[in-house]
Specification:
mainly beta, six-stranded antiparallel β-sheet, 4 helices, about 15% helix, about 45% strand
Length: about 230
């Protein structure tokens, strides 16, 4: 299987070309843009009803996922996220874990499994109680709203702070806590809100925009119905 990410970082899309019959890729519901007519598509609740409901209710992902299987070599599949932005591909080896914010998962090879991870009490303040946990062996693609900004911790940075609405994904080996930017005045008046403070060794990915910021920007321009 050969993959290519095009049009990063604004309107990214993945081109998948299968090398042989039987190769397969799993995508989030609604991610397909185009495909060969003879390619097989199957919609299912991967892992069974319990696992699918857990991903939906706790991890914010769709219950159903689509599996695309090549019937011959040379067939192509195009997939893209709903929001405009960038796509990142990573490789997972056995024993590795990878953590994603809700809605960031886009696609993976069949050897990747998805589960949820309890964030503890700090999840009440970060906007979600659970993270999506990916593990297994294979390739995984996730998407961001806006461009991707990645930072490596453990060498140049011993710790790193990012806004919790901009944090998208991070590798195993990193821990984080939810903190205020400053005092109560900064929390409510600075416009920054809460932040994630990362420690350890690994990589964290952030997105250059966030949907909440766009909604706040557009709010003054919304059409208001007259009461007359």
């Amino acid at each position: 299987m050969q993959t290519e990410i095009r049009h990063n970082p604004d309107f990214a899309i993945i081109r998948v070309q299968f090398d042989m019959a039987g190769e397969q890729i799993v995508t989030e519901s609604g991610a397909m843009v185009a495909r060969d007519t003879s390619m097989q598509m199957q919609t299912s609740m991967r892992g069974g009803l319990g696992a699918a409901l857990k991903r939906k209710l706790l991890g914010g992902e769709s219950i159903f996922q689509n599996s695309f299987t090549a019937s011959s070599g040379g067939q192509t599949l195009w997939i893209a996220p709903a929001a405009e932005g960038a796509i990142q591909e990573i490789d997972l080896a056995p024993g590795q874990e990878f953590f994603l914010q809700s809605g960031a998962y886009l696609a993976s090879t069949p050897g990747i499994q998805l589960d949820t991870k309890w964030q503890g009490a700090k999840g009440f303040f970060s906007g979600g109680l659970f993270l999506l946990r990916a593990f297994g062996e294979g390739r995984l693609w996730f998407s961001t709203y806006g461009a991707i900004h990645a930072v490596d911790l453990g060498q140049q940075y011993q710790g790193y702070i990012c806004d919790n609405t901009h944090m998208v994904a991070f590798t195993q080996g990193l821990s984080y806590s939810i903190n205020k930017v400053g005092g109560l005045k900064s929390l409510f008046l600075s416009g920054e809100g809460l932040v994630c403070t990362f420690q350890g060794q690994g990589r964290v990915w952030m997105q250059s925009r966030n949907p909440g910021g766009l909604a706040a920007f557009l709010h003054p321009f919304r059409r208001v119905q007259s009461s007359n």
